[in-house]
Amino acid sequence: MPFLDVAHTLTREQVSAVPVVDADDHVIGVVSESDLLAKGSP
């Protein structure tokens, strides 16, 4: 999912992090607001 889509999802869902899942829906990581802030704008 692109950077802006992740940011919009966090805002829309009012959460500070979302899971990252593989094709089998296994959680393989987490993307948080702080991850987005560290990366900066796209």
TrEMBL record:
Source taxon at top rank: Bacteria
Keyword Coiled coil: no
Keyword annotations of the record: CBS domain
Every CBS domain range: 1-42
UniProt-listed Pfam families: CBS (PF00571)
Gene3D superfamilies, A to Z: CBS-domain
InterPro entries: CBS_dom (IPR000644), CBS_dom_sf (IPR046342)
Protein's UniProt name: CBS domain-containing protein
